[in-house]
Amino acid sequence: MSRDEPVDLAKEEPQDAELRDFLKRFRLDQPTRVHEIAERSAQAAAEAAPERGPARSRGGIQPLVDWHDYPPNITFDPTGRCNVVCEMCDFHRVRSDKGWKLRQMPELSPEVLRARLAEKIPMRTVTFSGGGAEFFLNKRWPELIDAARSQTRDIVVLTNGTTLNEKTRHQIVEKQIESIRVSFHGARAETAMEIMRGSRFEDVKRNLAELVRLREARALPYPRLHISFVGMRKNIDEFPDFVALAAELGADSVTLSSMMERDAEGMEHTRGQSLVGDPERLRRNWRAGSQIARERGVRLLSNDPYQNLLEGKEQSAGMEDDEPHAPVTPGKTKLCLFPFDKPFVGLNGSVGLCCSSTGRNVEMGNADLASFRAVWHGENYSSLRRSLITGEHLPDFCAQCPRAPNVHPKTMEIHAALLHARTTGRAAGLWIALRNARHRRRYVAELAALNIPRVGIRSVARAVLMRGLRHFGLAG
Ligand code: SF4
Ligand code: SF4
User: Fold this and answer.
1) How many beta carbons lie within 10 A of that of residue 410, not counting itself?
2) Which of 153, 151, 169 minimizes the C-alpha distance to 161?
3) What are the residues whose beta carbons fall under 8 Å from the beta carbon of 316, sequence distance 6 or more?
4) Which pLDDT score is estimated for 6?
5) pTM of the model
6) What is the mean pLDDT of the chain?
7) Is the minimum distance from the CB of 397 to ligand 2 under 6 angstroms?
8) Can you tell me the distance from the alpha carbon of 450 to that of 325, in angstroms, rounded to the nearest whole number?
9) pLDDT band at residue 147 under the 50/70/90 scheme
10) Do the Cβ atoms of 355 and 129 come closer than 8 Å?
11) Which atom of ligand 1 lies nearest, measured to the CA of 183?
């Protein structure tokens, strides 16, 4: 809701009187009922869990830096092996004296996973994914699912689709894995198999179609099938046909993922494959794919930086100066919520910032040597979050990141504050977002220019406030 957008009182429920009052008042810098609730919530939380220390201040950015006790989502690397070689991936191989060879690393065992989860982390989602990892090569994968299931309903598995044989398909359906995300990159066999060497196009198609058929035969809601298509110059003209193929296979969604060109040794062939330099061709195929997706009931998604180029937006549209995905410039920061939301845990227990950090020596701590809580609240994470929010002392790794767009620090602060409020239900994050209301125009404009769906302040306010009211028995 922008400052100019009036609250439609006619649409409010009667019990929203508090919320209406709050929405009217938050534009003023004065204490309101919600602040009292925040204070009382913090007091109650401190009394319930004295080890957390005194209630946190609402002021400054500290409540955002010192994020809630545990990450709400965690990704675990399930194995160090993959059975195919994709053009855009170099995680699966290592340099030796005799040239490149496929990486052979130990698998994540259910015992280790259980030990890592022993803290009873209140997670929303567990994802199994890693650089160079094919989940179903881990022979004990059903036990990994069981271990994760003990703590969350929402389990996501990434696969290349080649390993979904009949037995595996049955197990997936029996285990009711919520989401299977498959990498698949061509509508024509030659293209798909050139990009993913070692895969067999017809086998992958059959595996996916059979998985969906099995789910439907048992009238079960899961697994949902999501397909990721990395768009390159060599395959983008097949995208509309690929959407039709995905619909035929029974996919719920297709994501047009951005191709990231790599300078690393052995990855020279990726140069020139990104479509960032050819937005018209990208848009043309996206439009044709969207038409088919609408007709066939498939959800179409994209991610940055392609997302930003689609639907007529130029890369720098709406931005004040630099290109949004270029290295960060003075006065800007990166809009990235991974360090606030979702750590990546490697095979050796190292906790990394994001998938880009896997195997690249960017470690926040080790989940096997310290508790998750200690790592999540450790100085590495805290100082990185502070840097992202303020734009100061951003490490090179993030400053150069092409995945995260460049924004004003206030945009990042508001975004982090809304995520904090939405995730934790605590009013502190919301209060910070609202206190920055005068920056909201910039926030909304930047996110619109970047095509990033913003978190609705109104829906967050409602959720946080109602939760607070219920906590104190003031609402049903
Ligand atoms: S399937 Fe995934 S892990 Fe395996 S080579 Fe391809 S991108 Fe890398
Ligand atoms: S490297 Fe990029 S994606 Fe990873 S945490 Fe930093 S800004 Fe976010």
Assistant:
1) 18
2) 169
3) 322, 323, 324
4) 36
5) 0.79
6) 79
7) yes
8) 10
9) very high
10) yes
11) 1
